[in-house]
Amino acid sequence: MPRESIQKKKLRAERIRLELLRLYPEATCSLDFVDPYQLMVSTVLSAQCTDERVNLVTPALFDAAPDAAALAKMPVKRLEILIHSTGFYRNKAKNLKAAAKDLVTKHAGKVPGSMEELTALAGGGRKTANVILGNAFDVPGFPVDTHVGRLSRRLALSKHEDPEKVEKDLCAIFPSESWTLLSHQLIFHGRAICPSRKPRCEECTLADDCPSKL
Question: What is the pTM of this model?
C-alpha cells in the first residue's frame, strides 16, 4: 500500500468505524460480570483462554470468592482447582491473589478507576486496565487483544506487534468516545469474518478499505 497521509488514514479509519458500527451496533464485552471486581477477575482469566470458557468457570469462583477480601484469603490450591480449565492456572492464581491483596490493603477492597492505579495492581497491564475502565467505569479505553492487534495490522491502522504501540496508534485516529465499543466491534469482526487463518475477504464489507484483502 502506498504511504498514506494522516488525513487519508483518518478518513479511511472513519469509514471502517462506521461500517463496524453498522455491522455490530450492540457489540459488548463477552465476559459475564456484575461489578468491577468480577470483570477484573474475568479479564485476568481470559488471557490465552476463550471468554466462553471463562464464563463457565467464574460462577463457581464468584460463589466461593464474592469479593476481593474473600479471594485474598482463599488458599491458592483451591483457587488453582477452580480456574484450572482456563489454562496457565498457576500464574493466574498467583496474580489474582496478589491483586486481591492489593485491593484490600490499598483500595479498601474496591477496584480503582484510573489507569495508573489499575496498572499498579499485581499482575496488572494496560489491556486489563482498559477493559475495566471502558466496561465497568465508562472511561474511554482501547484494549488490544489478539483480534484487535491482528485486524489493526491487516487494515493498516498500525504496523506494530506490541499491544501498547497498537493502542497508541488506534487512539490517535479514532475519537475517544468510540474506543470501548470499537474494540468490541473489532473483536466481533475478527471472530466472524477475519480469523487468524483463512480470512473470508470475499464476505468482508471492509475489503475496499483493507490493503490486506486477498
Answer: 0.93
